[in-house]
């Protein structure tokens, strides 16, 4: 697997900058790492599991997604229900200090591990040399791939065209990789077409886009009881009016809103005056 992101290195502390000979205040580049993939059940991944040709054949014959593809299995629905149940109870125990703290540590009130890695497993990773290439463009991404695999790892076109390379990134990097694939779609080998790179979005960026989508759909107005704007006003939250506000600020606010709604539901369902 390949992972990489931009870096910015401060190179000059001089206040006065004169002439082309002066060093730049900041030098931008890219830092990459390669990771050894591991199967959840059988140790290291076999080369057969990441052969590129079957993956591309499946892609070419894929008819697209339907609602049946998007529905979850019964086992997945049960796993989601388990997580929600634990979250609801944990919110009660977190905000009602009259409960003994040992309840929060009880084994039955912990989030279950659905696909655990083997005990003692540690992912092996290998840092590569930082390169003075900015990866935030289509051309920059293509240059990063060539520097990593051709220049640093000294692999050949033939070696690189046989197996898929998983790469998990932010949305912008994935867009640049896909753009490079479209630009080279008529090239000769899988490597030069850059179709060896099988992209996925990182969990952080998945959550980032999710909370922005929640804000976009449920923002409403302060006069609409139950809208996010209504709760923001009650909590005296600011700086959340932009389309893409700070992730951590928005996430913390959404969790406060959720906690309040769950506690109110606990109060109403219990039928008692105090939780």
Report what the structure shows.
The chain is α+β, with helices and mostly antiparallel strands. The protein has a domain at 204-270. The protein has ten helices and seven strands. It has helices at 52-60, 67-70, 74-95, 102-105, 138-152, 157-160, 171-183, 203-218, 228-234, 247-270; strands spanning 2-10, 26-35, 38-39, 43-44, 125-127, 165-169, 197-201. The strands form three sheets. It has a three-stranded antiparallel β-sheet with strand order 1-2-5, with no helix packed on it. Strands 3-4 form a two-stranded antiparallel sheet. It has a two-stranded parallel sheet with strand order 6-7. Strand 6, helix 7 (171-183) and strand 7 form a beta-alpha-beta unit. The protein is globular, with a radius of gyration of 25 Å. The relative contact order is 0.11. The model has no long low-confidence stretch (mean pLDDT 90).
What sequence of helices (H) and strands (E) makes up the elements?
A: EEEEHHHHEHHEHEHHH
Low-confidence stretches: none
Strand share of the residues? 5-15%
Oligomer: single chain
The averaged pLDDT comes out at: 90
Count of helical regions: 10
What is the terminal separation in angstroms? 49 Å
Rg over alpha carbons? 25 Å
What is the 3D shape? Answer: globular
Helix content: 40-55%
Largest sheet: 3 strands, antiparallel
Beta-strand segment tally = 7
Structural class: alpha+beta
Strand order within the widest beta sheet = 1-2-5
């Amino acid at each position: 697997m390949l992972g990489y992101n931009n870096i910015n290195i401060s190179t000059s502390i001089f206040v006065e900058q004169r002439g082309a000979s002066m060093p730049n205040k900041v030098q931008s580049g890219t830092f990459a790492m390669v990771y050894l993939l591991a199967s959840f059940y059988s140790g290291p991944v076999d080369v057969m599991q990441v052969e590129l040709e079957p993956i591309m054949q499946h892609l070419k014959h894929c008819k697209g997604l339907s609602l049946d593809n998007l529905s979850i299995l019964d086992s997945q629905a049960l796993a989601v229900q388990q997580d929600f149940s634990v979250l609801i109870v944990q919110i009660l125990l977190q905000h009602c200090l009259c409960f003994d703290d040992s309840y929060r540590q009880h084994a039955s009130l912990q989030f279950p591990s659905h696909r655990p890695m083997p005990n003692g497993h540690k992912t092996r990773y290998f840092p590569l040399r930082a390169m003075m290439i900015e990866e935030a463009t289509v051309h920059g991404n293509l240059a990063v791939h060539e520097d990593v695999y051709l220049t640093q790892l000294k692999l050949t076109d033939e070696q690189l065209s046989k197996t898929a390379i998983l790469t998990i990134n932010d949305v912008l990097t994935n867009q640049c990789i896909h753009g490079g694939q479209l630009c080279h779609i008529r090239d000769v080998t899988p490597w030069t077409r850059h179709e060896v790179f099988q992209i996925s979005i990182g969990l952080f960026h998945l959550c980032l886009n999710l909370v922005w989508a929640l804000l976009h759909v449920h923002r409403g107005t302060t006069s609409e009881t139950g809208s996010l704007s209504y709760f923001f006003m009650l909590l005296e939250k600011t700086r959340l009016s932009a389309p893409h506000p700070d992730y951590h600020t928005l996430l913390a606010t959404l969790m406060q809103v959720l906690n309040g709604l769950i506690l109110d539901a606990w109060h109403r369902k219990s039928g008692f005056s105090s939780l």
